[in-house]
Amino acid sequence: MNDILLKTLDGQLVERPPVWLMRQAGRILPQYRAVRSNMKSFKDLVKNPVKAAEVTIQPVDELGVDAAILFSDILVIPEAMGLDYNLVEKKGPMFPTTIQSWDDIAALIDGEEAALKLEYVYNAITETKDQLNDRVPLIGFTGAPWTLFCYMLEGEGSKTFSKARRFLYQHPEWSHKLLQKISATVAEYLKIQIEKGVDCVQIFDSWAGCLGTQQYHEFGLKYIRWILEQLPENTRTIVFSKGAHASMEELLDLPCKALGFDWQIEAEYIASQVNGQKVVQGNLDPCVLYADNEEIVRSTQRLLSVFKGGHIVNLGHGVYPDTPLSGVKKFVDEVKSFRY
Ligand code: CP3
């Protein structure tokens, strides 16, 4: 197996850093669009373990990345808890009903009962591990409680997440109850993913940055910490809290192996703050990949030169759907030809 990702997460020496891209499965690959166009909907694809495995592996074949990330979505969790979603073309996720009241929260199922509804994800893991045949590790993932809370309150994406944030002030106890139920589900979900064979797990807290630090500690990080504490010892864990730089100290204190960072914070600053306490994942601006080859090489080399190890090369957020494949390949190839 190409295990440089796992070695890096375990703190072992490698000759170059591993590279993968958040949201590498789907979106940017013509092979993905071909599979997708033969399925009725995104959800049909997510719920079909053979097809999900196929698109999970496509970026490994096409881009030569050092890890596969399971093809699924963070929104399967609210669905398993009882909040159905749809993906509307060009608009993104939409929940026909949202959480408004204590009764809505009480009606959600949670914990193991909810996690067991995601059988199709576990089957996709088994199928993917089979088809991958140990070429590269498989990354499992979940949304973080706060980010899932945002969708469950808003019903869709938002620029301000003001419905979700207002709920924290108007109904702090209800908010905690909902975050507990989400966390209980996420913990069971990750435990089963690990049992089924994922080699590491990433927690995506995409909307961490819309909270002030005090609120992020109380309504975000507290639950991420609790989830991490439920996982088997030595689980390889990556926490990506987008926009949460102001909570650096608290992030460094989490019981995880790696922290993901977005591009709005300088790599040099990250390296100086983290100082070997965690593995660092990130943090090239996804927009660099639209630039010409010279700029892609320059930016990638600059990023590579900052870390002397303990680094997983990635973008600072998911790759954008219209990114030219040539740019993505240049980035991956540049990392793969680098040596410490
Ligand atoms: O590498 C991968 O793409 C693996 C699978 C993956 C998807 N979503 C597939 C997907 C992962 C890891 C996610 C995570 C996810 N989903 C996040 C966290 C990461 C981040 O980007 O911040 C969030 C916030 C979501 C919610 C979501 N799902 C949105 C906002 C959208 C619509 C816009 C978009 O990203 O395309 C989705 C749909 C979605 N999830 C698609 C894919 C491939 C596109 C749907 C399609 O192909 O029809």
Secondary structure: helix percent = 40-55%
Give the low-confidence spans. none
DSSP E strands, number: 9
SSE series: HHHHEHEEHHHEHHHEHEHEHEHEH
Protein architecture, described:
It is a single chain. This protein has 340 residues and is α/β, with parallel strands linked by helices. The chain has a single domain, classed as TIM Barrel (Alpha-Beta Barrel), CATH 3.20.20.210. The protein has 16 helices and nine strands. The protein has helices at 4-9, 30-37, 42-46, 49-63, 76-81, 102-107, 111-115, 119-132, 145-154, 162-170, 172-195, 213-230, 248-252, 267-274, 293-306, 325-336; strands at 68-69, 86-88, 92-94, 138-143, 200-205, 237-241, 258-260, 279-284, 311-315. It has a seven-stranded parallel β-sheet. Strands 2-3 form a two-stranded antiparallel sheet. α9 packs across α11, α10 (162-170) packs across α11 and α11 packs parallel to α12 (213-230). The model has no long low-confidence stretch (mean pLDDT 97). The chain binds coproporphyrinogen III. Coproporphyrinogen III binds at residues 23-27, 36, 42, 69, 71-75, 87, 92-93, 141, 157, 204, 206, 318, 321.
List the helices and strands and how they pair.
Elements: H1 4-9, H2 30-37, H3 42-46, H4 49-63, E1 68-69, H5 76-81, E2 86-88, E3 92-94, H6 102-107, H7 111-115, H8 119-132, E4 138-143, H9 145-154, H10 162-170, H11 172-195, E5 200-205, H12 213-230, E6 237-241, H13 248-252, E7 258-260, H14 267-274, E8 279-284, H15 293-306, E9 311-315, H16 325-336
